[in-house]
Write a structure and sequence with these properties.
The chain is built from no helices and eight strands. It is mainly β. The strands form two sheets. Strands 1-2-3-4 form a four-stranded antiparallel sheet, with no helix packed on it. It has a four-stranded antiparallel sheet with strand order 5-6-7-8, with no helix packed on it.
């Protein structure tokens, strides 16, 4: 794979605040901190968008990403905090964790 020095992805109007990146050995994932939250899947060879996940109302501000070898995890800056498990092949939600009262804001994830 070769990427030109000048290759870049620029969000469209309204796609602001790229907060985190993850890599799954094939694609780059970009967490967008907007309302609702967005995760964009990019082809690194072309830097073009391949797919995206968009949160529902109240699922705001994708703040952090992690990849465990199978799934992409998205931490949301919500109260209570939410971590969403995405299938990278379909960009659909597989599962989620929602914090209890006072367990707010998923600022970081690690695998």
């Amino acid at each position: 794979m070769s990427v030109s020095e000048n290759a870049r992805w620029v969000g469209t109007l309204g796609v602001d605040y790229a907060r985190a990146l993850a890599w799954d050995d094939t694609y780059i994932y970009v967490a967008i901190g907007q309302k609702p939250a967005v995760v964009i899947k990019l082809d690194p060879a072309t830097m073009l968008e391949v797919a995206r996940w968009t949160g529902a109302a109240g699922e705001d501000s994708a703040r952090t990403l992690a990849w465990d070898g199978t799934y992409i995890y998205v931490g949301l800056l919500t109260a209570p905090g939410i971590v969403i498990q995405l299938d990278p092949a379909t960009m659909l939600e597989v599962d989620r964790w929602t914090g209890a009262a006072g367990e707010n804001y998923a600022y970081a994830l690690a695998w």
